[in-house]
User: Which sequence fits this backbone?
């Protein structure tokens, strides 16, 4: 929490209560999070289930990582947090899948409240979330297949195959949409 105090000169000075230092002293942890957040948010937007806000996914990944210690202690925080985001999204999809399978047995589902997406996004959502992540990492962010493999937890040749199959499937989905 930040407070202000008089430093004797009549000017208010912002003080960070956690460390007692002036706010001008940069917090390396906060700077690191600010630098990593845009990349993590873009990845989360690609891999998150439609029902989950990507910001929440990034928040959960950061929270879990910070429970283990400061991010500044990590050798490579971006790959670590990317992997955490992908894993959390997979966990969320599994949980939502169980819920979707159980819901018809428990109650009537109101489909009018499901989110609707523009048609250009529908083809992407038809892909497996890991396929979307692989395409995003390779085609949008320009990562080599070795990096994609590290993030997705597979071998580089498997990542290349996933990217190739995802491109082929996306191409066919777009062509089907154009034919309609």
Assistant:
């Amino acid at each position: 929490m930040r407070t202000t105090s008089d430093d004797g000169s009549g000017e208010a000075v912002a003080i960070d209560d956690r460390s007692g230092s002036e706010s001008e002293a940069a917090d390396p942890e906060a700077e690191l999070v600010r630098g990593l957040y845009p990349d993590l948010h873009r990845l989360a937007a690609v891999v998150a289930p439609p029902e989950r806000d990507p910001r929440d996914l990034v928040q959960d990944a950061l929270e879990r990582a910070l429970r283990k210690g400061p991010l500044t202690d990590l050798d490579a925080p971006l790959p670590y947090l990317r992997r955490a985001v992908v894993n959390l999204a997979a966990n969320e999809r599994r949980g939502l899948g169980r819920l979707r399978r159980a819901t018809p047995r428990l109650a009537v589902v109101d489909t009018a409240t499901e989110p609707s997406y523009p048609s250009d996004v529908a083809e992407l959502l038809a892909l497996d979330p890991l396929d979307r992540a692989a395409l995003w990492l390779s085609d949008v962010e320009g990562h080599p297949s070795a990096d994609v493999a590290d993030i997705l937890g597979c071998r580089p040749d498997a990542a290349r195959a996933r990217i190739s199959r995802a491109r082929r499937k996306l191409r066919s989905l777009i062509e089907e949409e154009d034919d309609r």
The chain has two domains: 26-115, 116-180. Residues 77-106 form the longest helix (30 residues).
